[in-house]
Each structure stands twice: as structure tokens, then as C-alpha cells.
Amino acid sequence: MTHDTPLILPSLLAADWSKVAAEVKRAEEVGVQWLHLDVMDGAFVDNISFGPQMVQTVRKCTDMYLDVHLMIHRPDHFLERFLHAGADNITIHVEARYDTSVIETLRRIRAAGKHAGIALHPDTPFEAAIPYAHEIDLLLVMTVVPGFGGQPFMEKQTMPKLAAARDYRDAHGLKYHLEVDGGIYTNTAPIAKANGANLFVCGTSFYGPADTPQAMAELTACVA
Ligand SMILES: O=C(CO)[C@@H](O)[C@H](O)COP(=O)(O)O
């Protein structure tokens, strides 16, 4: 799949965790290819979600591509656990603390045969990702302050950065996907697409509506 292919990625954070397997199937049944899993440690972000055990649980339920977003400090310390749990892509934050380094962590992910991503907090400029641009498969531009679902899309703070990430990629012959996460609905996803995004993480907009086929159809259509 190239960086021109638009995909809707439901975020499991917004699902009903009392029936995780059914919520995973709910996504699979409407044609989702990539599922997004938000790992939060209560230190890097002001919330705690789940860890590798949930990733492993989801892995047992599906063959969908698992896109794991680590909102944690010391992602390098925990890396092997997420790799073994069945992650297909692991995205780490440039702003996190590392025992080793961002670059070494990205290389370890790729050496394990998986895809590697970098994430940027809304306050972090695109320039912070440039040293890693040749080492990533995906750049995640957070469109809300990481930690919680249901927040409004930060258009002014994040769209120029997204466009800069697209322009840099295209000018340097790179291939990384551009992912947006937070406040993505049918009215905001097209704005992100116009600025270069092809991966759209949808929490509330996917798992909120009772009519999942309709939600998926509308989200897919608005970025087609
Ligand atoms: O990573 C995060 C929040 O930190 C996101 O994945 C949210 O889960 C997106 O939720 P919505 O804004 O789509 O409700």
C-alpha cells in the first residue's frame, strides 16, 4: 500500500472494552484493514489505557494490520513486548524519554521486520522529525493533545505541519504514510487529506455511531 492510499483506522480506545473481540469484529466486518491501538502510560500522557496484553488479545481476534501508537516513556524498554504481542507498526513519540535513542528504537522495530513510525505532539514542529525521515514508514501528526478521545481537531496548529511533512517527503523521494489522529470526522478528514494525510484514525466517529456500516461508508467516502 502506498502513501496515496486513504485508509480509515478505527481507534480501539473508543470501543466498548467489555466486548473487545466483538468490537474488533465490528471493524473487520465493514472492511477495515488497519486497526489503531493507543497505549498510554499515565506519565507521557495524563491517562492510562492498556499495554501489550491487549495488543496480544486483539491479535488473537483478527488478522487486520495492527497499528500500535505508544504514548509512553521508555518505549525502547518495552519494545520487545509489543513486537511479540503482534504489532505490525509501532509508532513512538519524539518527545518521549529513551534509555537508548529514537533512532536506535526505530531501527530495532524495522530489524524485527515491522514498520516504524514517529509521532509528533501538536506543539512539536515538523523539523523534529527530519533526523528520522529516512528511517520511518509512517509519520503521525497528532491533531489533538494526546491522551483522550473526543477532543476537537486542532486545525490551525497542525495542518501547516502536516503539509510541511508532505512537502518534505515528496521533495526527498521518501515514502512514509501521513497519519492524523484526534477529532477526525467527515468534516475534518477532508481538511487533513488536502494537507497530505492518507491514514485517518477515527475513534468516536467510528465506534460512536450504532450504524457502523454507515459510519464507515461516510468516513471512507469523505477521503476517497
Ligand atoms: O490517540 C488518541 C488520543 O490520544 C486518539 O487515537 C483518540 O483515541 C482519537 O479519538 P477521537 O478524537 O477520534 O475520538
TrEMBL record:
Coiled coil regions in record = none
> Sorted alphabetically, which CDD domains does this protein's record hold?
RPE (cd00429)
**What Enzyme Commission number(s) appear in the record?**
5.1.3.1
The record's catalysed reaction(s) read: D-ribulose 5-phosphate = D-xylulose 5-phosphate
In terms of SUPFAM superfamilies, this protein maps to: Ribulose-phoshate binding barrel
Segments crossing the lipid bilayer: none
Gene3D superfamilies, alphabetized? Aldolase class I
- The superkingdom listed in its UniProt entry is Bacteria
Q: What class of enzyme is it?
A: isomerase
**Some GO term, biological process aspect, for this entry: which one?**
carbohydrate metabolic process
Q: Which UniProt keywords apply?
A: Isomerase, Metal-binding
Enumerate the Pfam families for this protein: Ribul_P_3_epim
Q: What family classification does the UniProt entry report for this protein?
A: Belongs to the ribulose-phosphate 3-epimerase family.
Report what the protein is called: Ribulose-phosphate 3-epimerase
Q: Which organism is it from?
A: Prosthecobacter fusiformis
Top-level taxonomy: Bacteria, Pseudomonadati, Verrucomicrobiota, Verrucomicrobiia, Verrucomicrobiales
